[in-house]
């Protein structure tokens, strides 16, 4: 990322200045594509590493993929679900999402809206869901939704996924 956008995106200690990157990528579709090409392959490799590590167990593995729907859009509406028993979408109304980004992450309103607008629509995201966690309410409501989701997760049959063969 520093090779592409320079040292202005990191502080003196080399820590990524996320807002600086966001200002670049959420205002230019070509730069958004560029960051996806940089980050997504690394994320994919790490997810596969963790799935391989968990494969010999009966553990529930949850892959938190914030841009799953965006990947599906690029793949003709198809989500790569190898080994997945289901897809969970955590949903809240856009105005609630904007308010939370402003309140808890110190985004300005325009930046929050740009980020949301850069994503697929709420309807597209919900269309991918096997289970929806409603997150438009308070924390007590969310806890109930998480409990409901966990009950659904543990009711699913195990998958027959096995790790891909490693090259020697």
> Based on helices, strands and strand pairing, what is the structural class?
mainly alpha
Give the strand line-up of the largest sheet: 1-2
Helix percent reads 40-55%
Count helical runs. Answer: 8
Kindly provide the radius of gyration, computed on alpha-carbon positions and rounded to a whole number of angstroms.
18 Å
The average pLDDT score comes to: 86
The H-and-E topology, N to C, reads as HHHHEHHHEH
Shape: globular
Name the poorly predicted regions.
Answer: none
**Strand count:** 2
Could you list some keywords that capture this structure?
168 residues; mainly alpha; two-stranded parallel ribbon; 53% helix; 5% strand
In short:
The chain has 168 residues and is mainly alpha-helical. The protein has eight helices and two strands. It has a two-stranded parallel sheet with strand order 1-2.
